[in-house]
Amino acid sequence: MPRPTGLKIDTSALHHNLALIRRLAPHSKTWALVKANAYGHRIDVVLPHLRTTTGFAVCDVEQGVELRKTGWQGPVLIVDGTYNRSDLYAVEEHTLTLAVQTEEQLRLLELARFAKPIYIEVTVANRNGILGFHPNELRDVIERVKRVEAIRSTALYGRIDATTKDERKREVIEFSETVSGLKGDRSYGGSAEIIDQPRAMPDWVRAGVILYGASPASAPGTSALGGFLPVMRFVSKVVCIRDVASASTTGSRWGGARKIGVVACGYADGYPDTAAVGTPVAIDGIVTRVLERVSMDTIVVDLDPCPGVHVGSEVELWGQHVSVDLVAAHSGTTASRLLSSVSSRLPLEIV
Question: I need a labelling partner for 101 at 20 to 30 A (CA). Which of 122, 164, 184, 256 fits?
Fold first, then answer.
């Protein structure tokens, strides 16, 4: 028998979130980010439900080629660009849009010879940024791009790394001033900027983790407030129940007599081993907590708040009753990291 741990993917929530992004940015085109195997949701599962997006964004050229093989003919953005000359010919053959964010990537374009038009997106760094071209470099970069005859379209993307809403607004203003007077579509930031500034959207928006109903690292806890719904439920079952006496070693460790349960899920499945004692889980819809450090294959939880619990009761590690944002906050990490770290070996059910 297989372990009872798995994923449940709510495709109606995916449709809802994409529609909500469109309402927040009605005049913008949308890049749907499907990096990291669609943030752990499995790219083959989500693609059929996101085909009304304007374009897809992936990490590298190989992923872009795989996306073309599914029959998608719309725009595909390679957000990390490439550092390999041979990749440029795949970019040309499959009509991929290539991010250019370093001097080395720009030189590759200058040295290559193309038979077909090439589409690029130049990354503009913010004042503290590492990747991207800084404002004092940008005009020269654009002139060099113009001399590459095959390049037919040049978009401009502004990196936004700030962690507060006011700082993000400042970086957006700085980007707009930097690219003023330059031709090309504008795009900046990602999920946080969609939530922050629905009345000041650029030509393109990048819909990342909010597409899957979770919050970006720079704006934790904002997805639910914005009306986004969780797409993934990470679930397992109670496989063992014990009543622990207050006089026992384990009882004293947990503050007295207590009913405890063992859940068939651990860090090998993708649950964070950094989850603190007290991290919430839901059993049959009732929220309770993790009682001790997560092991490779199991989690010990408090069953006192769950009077009807039995072996086989469903445990939600995150999803509808316990948000992945909340688990991330208790684990010292981000929602996108948690979603992307779920084991690909887990069975998946579409609901």
Answer: 164
Query: How, if at all, do strands 6-9 and 232-244 pair?
Result: antiparallel
pLDDT in the model for residue 255? 65
| Residue (of 119, 307, 99, 334) closest to 216 by Cα position | 334
3-state secondary structure (DSSP) of residue 7 = strand
Write the DSSP assignment of 94-115 as a string of letters: TT-EEEE-SHHHHHHHHH---S
Distance CA 91, CA 95 (A): 6
300, 217 Cβ separation under 8 angstroms? no
Which fold would CATH assign to domain 232-333? Answer: Lyase, Ornithine Decarboxylase; Chain A, domain 1 (2.40.37)
Query: Would you list the domain boundaries of the chain?
Result: 11-212, 232-333
Q: Which amino acid is at 308?
A: G
Confidence of residue 237 (pLDDT cuts 50, 70, 90): very high
Q: Angle CA(323)–CA(326)–CA(330) in degrees, nearest 5?
A: 145
Q: Which residues contact 83 (CB under 8 A, 6 or more apart)?
A: 104, 105, 108
pTM of the model: 0.93
> 72 and 47 in contact (C-beta within 8 Å)?
yes
* Domain 11-212, CATH homologous superfamily name and number: Alanine racemase (3.20.20.10)
